[in-house]
Write a structure and sequence with these properties.
Protein name: Matrixin
Organism: Haloferax denitrificans ATCC 35960
Number of helices: 6
Strand order of the largest sheet: 1-8-9-7-5-6
Largest sheet: 6 strands, mixed
InterPro entries: MetalloPept_cat_dom_sf
Structural class: alpha/beta
Radius of gyration: 28 Å
Number of domains: 2
CATH topology of the largest domain: Collagenase (Catalytic Domain)
GO molecular function: metallopeptidase activity
Oligomer: single chain
Length: 381
């Protein structure tokens, strides 16, 4: 019977809020022009005003908190295995050091160091978790090893699972051992997560099943982080696909029908192929906010920064655990006490931002240094 730890890369949902912080001069009571804002990061609440002829703006920054979450995944139930009383003081491997060889892909990572760290964990904690002594000798090129730790791009089917990140024999007695035993470890994870996987799989070769102590390590699912990936702010298109669902909450809009028409003009502008933006975008309106990747609402006060005319709050995934989003999953635009005629411009501004144009000079022309009147014009024509 082979044990496995299943892939649960930590697709951590982060939220970032960005907003203008100038006094609400784009609102219905405005008498002078103001500007929207462009965030500098999507894992924090950061606002930076667009230079205009308005009074100087201030900058507000509030760090966001990332909370890793794991998605429970079904795991194989270990088949009943006959167990035997080990020799006094030792487990299935006996009193001699367990010789571990390492087979690696052709890259420059020090996989043997990961295995050495994992074996040191069990040597240090053998009495606590195993109830017997174990000693390892890691020799990457050992000719006659007891165990071969094989790092691979894809782990072979393991206990009926095809998405495992590791696989190892579940051994409780010396008579079960068929030297050399092979332990498979999937590549592509960060150093700490790779060590965790090796420790987990070696635990199976020491007689531990899923859920045994240390349970955080031996559970069939866990939080794993990948090697560093490109952040969403550095990608040309930071989404998984170009088809968006949209929910509009017009409860606080001064003219709901006109506001919806403004929103439609803005999104149609991008769907038709806005300059510098992807040319295959689609926007489908839905009635349930839970089904929407884009949510647009109206408010009397900004949830992001005092005095903001509009702001956007983005969510997404952080598989490499660096507290920065690598892929967006959704964003919310909040319009604060705006003139109805300015609604479309603000929606378009944030749409361009979350399509990869964080810098204003990368946005389509209508969103670069737009004047008070230009924001209320039919800029989409």
């Amino acid at each position: 019977m082979r044990g496995s730890i299943l892939l649960v890369a930590a697709l951590v949902v982060l939220a970032g809020c960005a907003a203008p912080v100038s006094p609400g001069t784009d609102a219905t009571t405005a008498t002078t022009p103001t500007s929207a804002a462009s965030p500098t990061t999507d894992s924090a609440t950061t606002a930076t005003a667009i230079p205009t002829t308005s009074p100087p703006s201030t900058t507000a920054t509030t760090a966001a908190t990332a909370t890793p979450t794991a998605t429970p995944t079904a795991s194989p139930t270990p088949e009943p295995t006959e167990t035997f009383t080990p020799a006094s003081g030792y487990g299935p491997w006996g009193s001699e050091p367990v010789v571990v060889a390492v087979e690696t892909p052709d890259d420059d990572r020090d996989y043997a160091a990961f295995v050495t760290e994992a074996t040191a964990f069990w040597e240090t904690n053998d009495a606590r978790y195993l109830g017997y002594e174990v000693d390892y000798e890691v020799d990457a090129d050992a000719r006659d090893p007891d165990i071969v730790v094989h790092f691979v791009d894809t782990v072979p089917e393991c206990g009926g699972q095809t998405d495992a990140v590791g696989c190892a024999p579940y051994l409780t007695d010396a008579r079960q051992i068929d030297r050399p035993e092979t332990v498979y470890i999937r590549t592509g994870f960060g150093d700490d997560s790779t060590v965790d996987i090796v420790e987990h799989e070696l635990g199976h070769t020491l007689g531990l099943a899923h859920g045994d102590e240390p349970a955080e390590l031996m559970n069939a699912t866990g939080i794993l982080y990948t090697l560093p990936r490109t952040n969403a702010t550095d990608k040309a298109f930071p989404w998984d696909d170009p088809n968006f669902t949209v929910y509009v909450d017009d409860a606080n809009a001064s003219d709901p029908d006109a506001a919806r028409e403004q929103i439609r003009h803005a999104l149609d502008y991008f769907e038709a192929g806005a300059p510098g933006m992807p040319d295959n975008l689609t926007y489908t309106y839905v009635d349930d906010p839970a089904d929407a990747e884009v949510r647009i609402s109206f408010a009397d006060t900004s949830p992001c920064a005092a005095g903001a005319a509009s702001c956007a709050i983005g969510g997404g995934y952080d598989p490499d655990g660096d507290d920065a989003l690598e892929t967006y999953s959704d964003y919310r635009v909040v319009l604060v006490d705006l003139d109805t005629e300015a609604v479309g411009w603000h929606v378009g501004y944030w749409t361009a931002h979350y399509l990869g144009a964080e810098a204003d000079e990368d946005k389509p022309e209508p969103f670069r240094n737009a004047t008070y009147g230009e924001r209320r014009s039919e800029w989409w024509t």
